[in-house]
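Field log, afternoon session.

UNIT: design team B
ACTIVITY: writing a sequence onto a fixed backbone
BACKBONE:
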């Protein structure tokens, strides 16, 4: 599913003015895009899309594009880490909310290295930024953070670059024939996901919290 979304994103990216800019800059463009995507201007799916496109255009250079995408993503993640380290927990809580931040803290305190690496490997819609910020806010050791982020990003982008090298043109050509149906499908999935998230946060969680409070209030108090 993730490769399908990446291929569809690559097809859409071919018509984007950003593609002309990245195409001219090549690997340097991937570094700059990776810095933006992992720090101050998140662009979900953009790195996968442009890595596929460049690797499909220049098939023998796919390891280079995988390395450049990894470098840009790691540097962008480092900037997010540093900002969160300076701002502390308040920075993350303002961005994602206190309740969600607390869940991230619990996961991170037990298996921080694993969550950074896993988040770096997984494509959108998995949210990597909260874990990057949690690493900084909780003063996670920089060497461990960079190692986990670098390994995860390398696995992801070298795999994406190889897919672009091996199958990029065929995938983009195939999805080009079904662009509109895939567009409608993506829009439908996005709308359903948004409705599901809204119901979860605005309806399910408040009722779950109310039930827990009622159950706590009903418990007999110790003498």
């Amino acid at each position: 599913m993730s490769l399908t979304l990446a291929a569809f994103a690559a097809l859409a990216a071919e018509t984007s003015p950003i593609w002309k800019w990245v195409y001219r800059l090549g690997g340097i463009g991937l570094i700059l895009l990776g810095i933006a995507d992992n720090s101050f201007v998140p662009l979900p799916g953009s790195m996968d899309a442009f890595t596929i496109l460049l690797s499909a255009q220049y098939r023998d250079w796919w390891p280079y594009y995988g390395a450049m995408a990894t470098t840009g993503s790691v540097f962008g993640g480092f900037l997010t880490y540093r900002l969160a380290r300076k701002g502390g927990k308040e920075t993350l809580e303002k961005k994602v909310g206190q309740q969600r931040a607390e869940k991230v803290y619990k996961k991170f305190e037990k298996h921080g290295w694993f969550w950074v690496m896993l988040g770096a490997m997984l494509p959108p819609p998995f949210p990597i930024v909260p874990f990057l910020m949690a690493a900084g806010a909780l003063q996670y050791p920089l060497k461990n953070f960079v190692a986990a982020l670098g390994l995860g990003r390398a696995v992801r982008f070298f795999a994406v670059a190889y897919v672009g090298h091996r199958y990029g043109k065929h995938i983009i050509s195939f999805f080009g024939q079904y662009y509109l149906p895939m567009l409608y499908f993506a829009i439908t999935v996005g709308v359903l996901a948004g409705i599901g998230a809204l119901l979860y946060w605005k309806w399910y969680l408040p009722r779950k919290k109310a039930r827990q409070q009622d159950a706590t209030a009903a418990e007999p108090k110790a003498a």
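LOG NOTE: The two ends are 56 Å apart (CA to CA).
NEXT ACTIVITY: expression trials, pending approval
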